Amino acid sequence: MAGSPRVDLSVPIGAGRVLPNPVMTASGCAANGRELHRFFDVSQLGAFVTKTVMMEPRSGRGTPRMAETASGMLNSIGLQGPGIRAFVEQDLPWLKSVGARVLVSIAGNTAGEFADVARVLADSDAFDCVVGVEVNISCPNVANRGLVFACDPLSSAKVIALVREQLPRDVPMFAKLTPDVTDIVSIADAAVKAGATGLTMINTLLGMVIDTDTLRPHLGGITGGLSGPSIRPVAVRALWQVTQAMRAGRFQTVPLIGVGGVRTGRDALELIAAGATMVQVGTATFNDPTAPQRVIGELETAVAAHGVDCVTGLVGIAHDRMVIP
Amino acid sequence: MTPPTPTTSGATVSAQTSARDGVLRVDGEVIAIRRAGAYHHLTIVAPGVAELARPGQFAALAVGGPTTGNLLRRSFSIHKVSPSGTYGGTLDLVIAAKGPGTQWLTELRAHDAVDVVAPLGRAFPLPTEPVPCILVGGGYGSAPLFWLAEVLRERGCPVEMVLGAGSEDRLFGVVEARRAADGVTVTTDDGSAGHRGWVSDVLPEVFRRTGAPVAYACGPMGMLQSVTRVAAEHGAVAQVAVEEAMACGVGVCMTCVMPVRDKAGVTKMVRSCVEGPVFRGDRVRWEAFHDGVCGVPADAVGAPQAGGH
Question: Among A65, A152, A172, B43, which residue has the least CB neighbours within 10 Å?
Fold first, then answer.
């Protein structure tokens, strides 16, 4: 960015690893890289986050899968994907070939399947481009809401512990949490105690749209995940609550990845001020395919405008700036 | 970041994206907007797009300006392109105001800015021999067919057009069709122009008369299915450009999928934005579409087991 002073954007992702900047794509909003690489070099990102992959190929749901909402959208994709074997044979080697740092999002129907997916990934030839694994325990688009592991501390802990066993210790592992719970801090606590290197917050919120012309549910899947700028305050709240709990010593302090409604560098800074060390750009990519790359430059400008030369100096800063009259 | 390249009109192209893989994100500029029956015809200065685009490809436009709450791009098949003009390369689109996003686009005025990503998707495949071709358009689905007709006739293919719509005002390009094609047939549901009825009512006669081995079609799903059926009955192949709801248009959101067989006969839920929008009609699993909803065929790769996903 012309005219703005240089800022050190590098951030620790955990397990002793450092990313050159805190900006990532968000899982499910960037496919597996080739499509966005037509618009910008994906190796410029702090990390590229892949679409959640499960053990077997998956068709996803029927259509309509999408409804536009006020400052956001509802989606019901149903975790469409090629399966982990095709992923490690085709997608991951391509990401490695262009020099991307990859955060791989994985999921399973059972805790055991999560571990199986992690094992295939860890054994793959291109695994050295993987800077971390994001364990998607919170996708709302599953037929049985009881299968949303992140709605329950014990289920979350079980998945995280099993995946941890399959990954080398120097590979950071993030648990992706849903805000659709009564107490996100208790889920975060359980995931960290089970071995998560860090936490990604937030997944989409469960929502529903009814078509008022046909008076029937708009989505084929009936309910879907709400994303976009409209949910950013929910992300900020979740990051705030978990950061506050870590600062109070309820559990070990770990790096947080903020995600939810980031469209600009200023939005990214808001999540950082709430406690995120890294930030993902999701739905905004549908509006502007260059958004993840653009946010890096805008964030640098926004950080410099606060007179600091290092983005890590602003992580969680809002907790220190409260005015208590 | 490379600074944007200014053009004579003030429209800019992100040089970063310049033809990296045949697609551009361009800060375009409207130079003309006019009514065409029930539709609006938009001409946008979009440098670089014309040189890359081929008939059947589409453009994805951001709506509402940079702070809008309507985040999703609106996709339109490209009506025509012009590589050089007074203002630089232009792109023409036909838009129907259906909701707040398309309404915003139709309210643009000359010199307003519009964010364009184009060209996207796979173009209509062209015959290698100068064979007769039938081009079928439903409503403003006819928009890309005139440019296609021009390209086909340059290759020596006689072109017959069939345009259908609910009513006369919802037809697009009847006058243009008479210039672009060797023969034109018009149908309307209400009989307000041409034959009363559907395009599928008149198509058998057009196939018999021309002996065309290929039909190109763009329009509503039901029409594309009937064109595919009639083509098959006459030993012809239908190449259909589908209209699926898309959030991004560039292949990352996975919302515009539909069940399509590959060459080996295996059905997959494929993205109509990158693997389409043009498909061979006989590869589309039409039976999965019901009243605006499309299911996943049970034999599709990775289809839901009992209990669903």
Answer: A152
> Is there a contact between A297 and A265 (Cβ–Cβ < 8 Å)?
yes
Query: Mind listing the pLDDT tens digit for each residue in B5-26?
Result: 334 444 444 433 444 468 999 9
CATH of the domain at A122: 3.20.20.70
> According to CATH, what is the number of the domain B7-120?
2.40.30.10
Residue A56: strand, helix, or coil: coil
- Using alpha carbons only, what angle is made at residue A57 by residues A53 and A58, rounded to the nearest 5 degrees? 85
Hey, what amino acid is at B245? A
List the single residue in A with minimal CA-CA distance to B62: A287
Which residues of A are tagged catalytic? 139
CB-defined contacts A:B, below 8 A: 149
A60–B contact, CB cutoff 8 A = yes
| Structural domain that includes position A143 | 11-61+77-207+226-320
Backbone angles phi, psi at B256, to 5 degrees: -95, 30
Examine residue A71 and state whether it is found in any structural domain, yes or no: no
Domain B133-294 sits in CATH at: 3.40.50.80
CB contact under 8 A, A62 and B71: no
pLDDT digits (tens, 9 = 90+) for B63-120: 999 889 999 999 999 999 999 767 789 999 999 999 999 999 999 999 999 999 999 9
Query: Is position B101 annotated in a ligand binding site?
Result: yes
ipTM for the complex shown:
0.93
Confirm whether A306 is domain-assigned: yes
How far away is chain B from the Cα of A190, in angstroms, using its nearest Cα? 26
Report the residue from B20, B117, B294 with minimal CB separation from A62.
B294
Considering only the beta carbons, identify the residue of A30, A78, A287 that sits closest to B72. Answer: A287
Pairwise CA distance, residues A98 & A287, whole Å: 24
Distances (CA, A) of A144 to A93, A175, B308: 34, 20, 9
Q: Does the pLDDT of residue A102 top 70, yes or no?
A: yes
pTM of model > 0.90? yes
Beta bridge partners of A224: A207
Query: CB distance A142–B309 less than 8 Å?
Result: yes
- Structural domain count of chain A: 1
Which residues of chain A make contact with B304, given a CB cutoff of 8 A? 59, 61, 78, 143
Cis peptide before A202, with omega less than 30 degrees from 0? yes
Is A118 contained in some domain?
Answer: yes
B279 a known binding residue?
no
Contact B302 A39 (CB under 8 A): no
**Mean pLDDT score of chain B, rounded to an integer?**
91
Q: How confident is the model at residue B245 (pLDDT cuts 50, 70, 90)?
A: confident
To the question of whether residue B218 is assigned a binding role by annotation, the answer is no
* A73 interfacial to chain B (CB closer than 8 Å): yes
Distance to chain A for B148, nearest Cα, Å: 26
Q: According to the annotation, is B294 in a ligand binding site?
A: no
Nearest to A35 among B250, B255, B302 (CB): B250
- Each as own residue / partner, the long-range contacts of residues B233-237 (CB below 8 Å, 24 or more positions apart, any chain) are B233/B204, B233/B207, B234/B204, B234/B207, B234/B208, B236/B134, B236/B207, B236/B212, B237/B213, B237/B280, B237/B281, B237/B282
| Residue A115: per-residue pLDDT | 97
